[in-house]
Design brief:
The structure is a single chain. By secondary structure, this protein is of the alpha+beta class. The protein has 10 helices and 21 strands. Helix content is 31%, strand content 31%. It has an 8-stranded mixed β-sheet with strand order 6-7-8-13-12-11-10-9, covered by helices on one side. A 5-stranded mixed β-barrel has the order 14-15-19-18-17, surrounded by 4 helices. The protein is elongated, with a radius of gyration of 26 Å.
């Protein structure tokens, strides 16, 4: 058990009280009076029960049996949980009979626990890792539930749209989305190492698709914790490097990458989403299984050449961007979370690093071959200047 945020012990006329503050006051949460042993138990949390028993034993003058003290502690903690003063720390539960599906995505080892292999999306199968000795970075448990009973509620609201609701509660985030039905709730630890997906049993096709998108939500947060960031963009391989063409939906990412593939024999790497990270002062693009409706993705890692921000136009022109524009344009295309101020700042700091290492320009373009030819010329010139 661990204390719920928003409660503290205060002494009033030498009597200990457990009282709410902050948001808990706004929620009209109750306070309670504690005896000496209750106050000592609260001060010990989130210690394990064995440690708590050692701390409170001196408070029992008649030295009752350990069983009696343990029963008292369990009863007290159960009452605190009922009233919302404490909650169970979210931890993975291992089972020898439930072997995980191991994935390696963008350099991160992801374990899927409790998911039937038949429910694994085809795109994710390409990232299965057979190395059982690899140390996991992220574990996701899948647990079937019978309904909304037992689901967590409350917390600080971070985001609420018609697509998703995200709340912060203690050491984790709670995610709810009708688009992910039959998933009822996703609990994601703040450190990005563990998540639990609770779902209603349904037809396999529906579950496969929902799990696929739920893993994406969770993974992108975990990747950000490892300083890897996702950009809404299509990419091609040219001169051994990945080149990203970014823009909002409908700006011609697929059209432009198709021109590169058709006329310059440049393979399309991903049709919708690219993961970027910096290692040893070099920028890399990592393969992801999520690729929008394009169906095009890869599993490899390539150096990043640059990012081209597309803008539909009646004429073709390549515009040099100021440093501020490079940072803002790139941040606007990021899919990595911005649920909190710190996440936004992390994204912006990464975009600033990119400006110092790769080409970052804006392309006003038509749908014709000339737009790709112009961009190819600019890229060739930029590479030649880098080598000089």
């Amino acid at each position: 058990m661990k204390p719920t945020c928003g409660y503290t012990i205060v002494s009033i006329d030498d009597t200990p009280y457990l009282l709410p503050y902050g948001q808990k006051i706004a929620e009209n949460r109750r306070g309670i009076r504690l005896n000496e042993s209750g106050a000592k138990i609260w001060e010990c949390l989130p210690a394990k029960n064995e440690e708590i028993l050692k701390k409170i034993q001196p408070l029992y003058p008649d030295s009752p049996s350990v069983d009696v003290m343990e029963q008292d502690v369990d009863q007290f903690l159960s009452q605190l949980k009922t009233w919302g003063f404490v909650n169970e720390k979210q931890e993975p539960k291992d089972s020898q009979d439930d072997l995980p599906i191991r994935l390696k995505i963008g350099g991160l080892a992801v374990w899927l626990q409790g998911m039937e292999s038949a429910l694994l999306h085809d795109s994710l199968k390409a990232f299965i890792c057979k190395d059982k000795s690899i140390e996991k970075n992220l574990r996701i448990d899948f647990q079937a539930v019978s309904g909304v009973e037992g689901l967590e509620t409350g917390g600080r609201l971070l985001i609420h749209t018609h697509e998703i609701t995200i709340c912060e509660k203690d050491d984790r985030f709670l995610l709810f989305s009708d688009l992910l039905a039959p998933i009822q709730q996703i609990r994601l630890n703040r450190d990005g190492t563990y998540a639990c997906v609770e779902y209603l049993p349904s037809n396999p096709e529906r579950l496969t698709e929902s799990f696929y998108h739920a893993i994406r939500f969770i993974y992108l947060y975990a990747a950000q914790c490892h300083d890897k960031f996702a950009i809404h963009s299509a990419s091609v391989l040219y001169h051994g490097k990945a080149w990203l063409f970014a823009g909002s939906s409908g700006t011609g990412k697929s059209t432009h990458t198709s021109l590169w593939n058709q006329f310059f024999d440049a393979p399309v790497l991903n049709g919708d989403l690219n993961l970027i990270g910096i290692k040893d002062s070099s920028v890399y693009v990592y393969g992801l299984p999520w690729c929008g409706t394009s169906g095009i993705f890869h599993t490899k890692t390539y150096p990043l050449g640059g990012i081209v921000h597309l803008k539909q136009s009646t004429q073709n022109a390549c515009q040099t961007l100021t440093k501020a524009e490079q940072i803002l344009f790139t941040a606007q295309r990021m899919i990595s979370p911005t649920w909190e101020k710190e996440m936004l700042q992390r994204n912006l700091a990464f975009c600033e690093q990119l400006c110092e290492n790769v080409l970052n320009v804006r392309l006003f373009c038509t749908k014709e071959r000339e737009s790709a030819e112009l961009m190819k010329q600019k890229i060739d010139e930029w590479e030649q200047n880098r080598e000089a």
